[in-house]
Amino acid sequence: MRAITIAEPGGPDALVLADVPDPVPGAGEVLVEVVASAVNRADVLQRQGFYEPPPDASRYPGLECSGRIAALGPGVTGWAVGDEVCALLVGGGYAEKVAVPVGQLLPVPKGVDLVTAAALPEVTATVWSNVFQIAHLRPAETLLVHGGSSGIGTMAIQLGKAVGARVVTTAGSAQKLAACRDLGADVLVNYREQDFVAELGDHGADVILDVVGAAYLARNVDALAVNGRLVIIGMQGGAKAELNLGRLLAKRGAVIATTLRARPTEEKAAIIAAVREHVWPLIEAGTVRPVVDRTLPLASAPEAHRLMESSEHIGKILLTI
Ligand SMILES: NC(=O)c1ccc[n+]([C@@H]2O[C@H](COP(=O)([O-])OP(=O)(O)OC[C@H]3O[C@@H](n4cnc5c(N)ncnc54)[C@H](OP(=O)(O)O)[C@@H]3O)[C@@H](O)[C@H]2O)c1
């Protein structure tokens, strides 16, 4: 098969389309013939040499895909050759074929085409696990979503609204904030010009989904409501910062940091089952929709990475095989 390989870590041109051996599905896995994959920030870090795939994972980038099941590994039940699926991956999505543990498969939701379905696994699993399973966002609470126009942000805004939360979001331009408003965000904060703590008002945020990390840690703690939960999933603003425990203690606050990729297969399967139960019906009802900036062919993976690094996109960037 052909796959995007990273011979040497570096800039976008380090991504090279090459002939490589086909993956072989192991016990409890299926082989998916990939129709589309999607670009995630983690792929950029992997390409730069800053994010090693876990041991045993495919060395090729790509944390999600959509496609058709081409073969079943030993012991697989409940799925058939030809089924149209999308999947959360630990790597290997930028390829014509990928082996996937069955627990990470999802049916393509009704009303979503097979290519667009590649935009869903990573954002739904990340937002559901962090905002709902870990931070327990409840109706009428306030959710602060940093980077509301990102792939993650566009899903977090919609799911927050779907459960009846008030959603406050930050983005770096008026155009991006307009997209966040169209997705239902109640309060829009241009982080280049405004202070999100002030814009939140007296109550603060019951849950914060943060992709900035160190540079926002102190302000995020200031932004928390009493009993607030800050979940950090990105470190675009650095990894090391000082935490004022006095301020956190006064809020009775929680600071949690997580990564989805490193979780064991069984935990990923539990998250995917919850996504299928809680998020898929919202997508099929049209309450929540995938947001796709653009779709490029797999060979244009370098261009797709340049676009992500420029941060000009809104929503997901897809790669088609
Ligand atoms: N831990 C996990 O399991 C996990 C899983 C998936 C994703 N993530 C993380 O989630 C983040 C989003 O991922 P993605 O794939 O959706 O990437 P993406 O579409 O490229 O989004 C990056 C976002 O970060 C925003 N941002 C950068 N600096 C900011 C700041 N100072 N204040 C507010 N927002 C800021 C950008 O906003 P502007 O463009 O408006 O500047 C942009 O919306 C990444 O950091 C990624 O690593 C983590």
UniProtKB/TrEMBL annotation:
Keywords: NADP, Oxidoreductase. InterPro entries: ADH-like_N, ER, GroES-like_sf, NAD(P)-bd_dom_sf, Quinone_OxRdtase_PIG3. It comes from the Bacteria. Residues 10-319 form the Enoyl reductase (ER) domain. Pfam families: ADH_N, ADH_zinc_N_2. Signal peptide: none annotated. GO terms for molecular function: NADPH binding; oxidoreductase activity, acting on NAD(P)H. NCBIfam families: quinone_pig3. This is Putative NAD(P)H quinone oxidoreductase, PIG3 family. It comes from Actinacidiphila paucisporea. The lineage of its organism: Bacteria, Bacillati, Actinomycetota, Actinomycetes, Kitasatosporales.
